[in-house]
Amino acid sequence: MDFLPLFFDIKGKSVLLVGAGEIALRKARLLSRAGACIDVCALEVDDAVKLMCEQSGGKLSVGDWFELKPSLDDYSLVIAATDNSALNEALSAECHERKLPVNVVDKPELCSVITPAIVDRSPLLIAAASGGQAPVLARKVKRMLDSSFPGAYGNLAKFASRFRSRVKDAIPDMEQRRRFWERCLDGDISEKVLAGNEQAAEKLMQEALAEPNADEGGEVYLVGAGPGDPDLLTFKALRLMQKAEVVLYDRLVSQPILDMVRKDADFVYVGKERSDHAVPQKKINELLLEHAQKGKRVLRLKGGDPFIFGRGAEEIELLSEHGVPFQVVPGITAASGCASYAGIPLTHRDCSQSVRFITGHVKDGVLDFRWKEFVEDSQTLVFYMGLTGLPKICEQLIKHGKDPRTPAALVERGTQPTQRVHVGCLENLQQIVESEEVHAPTLLIIGEVVSLQEKLHWYKPEC
Ligand code: SAH
Predict the structure, then answer these.
(1) E strands along 4-59, which residues?
(2) Exposure string for 330-341, b = 16+ CB within 10 A, e = fewer
(3) How far is the C-alpha of 230 from the C-alpha of 243, rounded, in Å?
(4) Residue that finishes a domain, picked among 317, 332, 347
(5) Are 315 and 222 in contact (CB under 8 A)?
(6) Given 13, 142, 272, 392, which residue is catalytic?
(7) Which CATH number do you get for residue 169?
(8) How many domains are contained in the chain?
(9) What is the C-alpha separation between 206 and 193, in angstroms, rounded?
(10) Is the distance from the beta carbon of residue 389 to the nearest atom of ligand 1 less than 6 Å?
(11) pLDDT for 424-459, tens place per residue?
(12) Atom 16 (ligand 1): residue with closest C-alpha?
């Protein structure tokens, strides 16, 4: 982060605005909305700037700044909106020396503070900035935010502010108060305010305040986070990720996805390495129950889909036995994600009418399968957790009659920027993999469909 975002209370404080053209006018408007007293210093002064200066109670100095050299003693902020680079640099240097916040329009290197693009729903204020690096992008973000937050959000913020102290008195506990507000702002009350029916909203608010701790029960969201690319999350997953107060996540959940979880949630890593179960499954089930019984909204975030080799069922069984409410949100499973991003269709009218998802997890050195079913034609086999067992899987398939030349691919870290696809056939895939430095997670796809990869691959990851 190059800048610390802050909101500056400038009401009644003096600001020096140097320059009085079109851009200075925009800055003057902004300063005037925030209640600043605007002193203007410029060679020539636009009428609109002059008016704003007067209305704010500021003074106007017409002339060359180098000659006038106004004292900077009483200012809380200086803004330079001129195209005179010598002036911009001198002013910036002087302000830096005095540790006085300075903004030089379009010259981020001369600024100690920058003015973001804003969406003003006062008292709610949303700011977007790019540290001066990509102002057009910041403005695009502002436009997106502008359309996502209707003007009535200002009313909602005012409504909340009217009830602030009453809610504080009725619910002294900070955590409970936060939850109360979240319920109000997520539900009917905010809908009524946004729809312009404040009377109905007030009535609901009074009812809610009469019973502030109603609906305090916890809930668990068992959410599939997909194979790694955050763009593959569902809307529902994202919504619940933003609501959760406690998050239990494992190794397969990528960092960009974790970054999208509500920032002030408690993050608990319960990740599983193949041979190192950081937290045993039984303990994870109990943790979910414990947090939910304390009234928390608990997010259990899992790679892929929670109901495909995800032990999702075990995790909610205990909750169900204890009557704790839960929701299950499907995610894009690794087979789907890896196949798409590798350019390997899992089925194809010409060569594959079915697809099997198989766990390749080796238990006590043994893979115990009905291999005969796997060697039948016209099907695609997808092995999850198949890297360690790869030589055994290929060997057994060949032994049970599968053609050693059957195409096979190992997709490494599918859908992620570091994705790699290793393509070969049953008899040589292990050799190919040995010559590369392969990292988990990997997904093994076997069948004629793999031969289409050469033509259909499209995803161009970083390396
Ligand atoms: N519930 C998950 C699967 C968990 S089992 C799902 O639906 O995808 C873990 C296995 O999934 C890994 O060993 C690997 O075989 C596979 N896997 C998950 N994410 C993957 C990825 N991004 N690339 C390749 N394989 C992946």
Answers:
(1) 14-18, 37-42
(2) bbbbbbbbbbbb
(3) 17
(4) 332
(5) yes
(6) 272
(7) 1.10.8
(8) 4
(9) 14
(10) no
(11) 999 999 999 999 999 899 999 999 999 999 999 999
(12) 384
- CB neighbours (10 Å) of residue 367? 19
Residues 105 and 73 placed together within one structural domain of the fold: yes
Give yes or no for a cis peptide into 325 (omega within 30° of 0).
no
* 66 in a structural domain: yes
Is 250 noted as a catalytic residue in this protein?
Answer: yes
Atom of ligand 1 minimally distant from the CA of 274: 13
Per-residue confidence at 276, pLDDT binned at 50, 70, 90? low
Whole-Å CA distances, 423 to 72, 380, 405: 69, 15, 12
272 is catalytic: yes
Ligand 1 neighbourhood includes 304 CB (under 6 angstroms): yes
Tell whether 137 is covered by a domain.
Answer: no
d(CA 20, CA 24): 5
Q: How far is the CA of 9 from the centre of ligand 1 (A)?
A: 50
Measured CA to CA, the distance from residue 19 to residue 186 in angstroms comes to: 45
What domain range is 377 assigned to?
A: 339-456
Q: Are residues 327 and 343 in the same domain?
A: no
Q: What are 283-298's pLDDT values in tens digits? A: 999 999 999 999 899 9
Task: Read off the pTM.
Answer: 0.72
Measured CA to CA in angstroms, residue 148 lies from 143, 233, 305 at distances of 9, 20, 30
Q: What is the CATH number of the domain that holds 45?
A: 3.40.50.720
Q: Going along 159-312, which residue ranges are E strands?
A: 219-224, 246-249, 266-269, 297-302
